[in-house]
Design brief:
- The protein has a 7-stranded mixed sheet, with helices on both faces.
- It has 6 helices and 7 strands; from the N terminus they run H-E-E-H-E-E-H-E-H-E-H-E-H.
- It is of the alpha/beta class and 210 residues long.
- Helix 1 crosses helix 6.
Length: 210
């Protein structure tokens, strides 16, 4: 079961996301975070899960967020200003990355410091590749968010690359897991950046936190 929106809400969300959405800055330390003057939502997920592709698809732009076939391309907290209503943050991917161990540790520390201490952070969208399901690194992040009482939602990506029956099985398995996590939203949302699946609904979900 997924969050339901009226046609009017979906049209309004589509309109806002087709308007201004500007890259603000890339943050490599907490000292350079922008003023906490707007609600924020963050996109987290394993390297190459499709965060940048999803942000581009949501905003109808080809290169708002950089995409790469090389895992670990996003190396900072990238802030985007959505219509002066909300900040969206593209976070460095965790898990596998073709960079030094020390750099991965630095990113991980930055991610955790931000997630633990940002008062205007309304929700973390944890992107999960629908073909692979939850991995240990996803569960570690979920545990940390549970402990710090930061709300989060699971967003499945690349659902065009998996058979419907397999997708249903994976969805049900994840929903069962979420029941054990107090900060998790109980529903998950399925998307495909390439096939435009679930994007308008996700736009409306994001704006509900503005």
């Amino acid at each position: 079961m997924e969050t339901k929106f009226s046609q009017k809400q979906l049209e309004e969300a589509r309109k806002i996301f087709s308007g201004s959405c500007d890259f603000m800055l890339g943050v490599v330390s907490l000292a350079t975070l922008p003023n906490a003057d707007k609600s924020e939502i963050a996109f987290a997920g394993r390297s190459n899960v499709g965060k940048s592709s999803l942000i581009n698809a949501l905003t109808g732009r080809k290169a708002l967020a950089r995409t790469s076939h090389t895992p670990g391309r996003t190396q900072e907290l990238n802030f985007f200003n959505l219509g002066d209503m909300l900040y969206m943050i593209d976070m460095p991917g965790y898990g596998y990355a073709k960079v030094s161990k020390s750099k991965v540790e630095a990113w991980t520390k930055l991610i955790y410091q931000y997630l633990r201490g940002r008062q205007t952070l309304r929700c973390v969208f944890i992107l999960v590749d629908s073909r692979h399901g939850l991995k240990d690194s996803d569960l570690e992040l979920m545990k940390m968010l549970d402990e710090t009482a930061v709300s989060y939602r699971i967003i499945l990506t690349k659902t065009d690359k998996i058979k419907t029956q397999e997708l249903e099985k994976r969805t049900n398995k994840i929903i069962e897991t979420l029941k054990k996590h107090p900060a998790a939203y109980p529903e998950i949302h399925a998307t495909s950046s390439h096939k435009d699946i679930g994007l308008n609904e996700l736009q409306a979900i994001i704006l509900s936190y503005a």
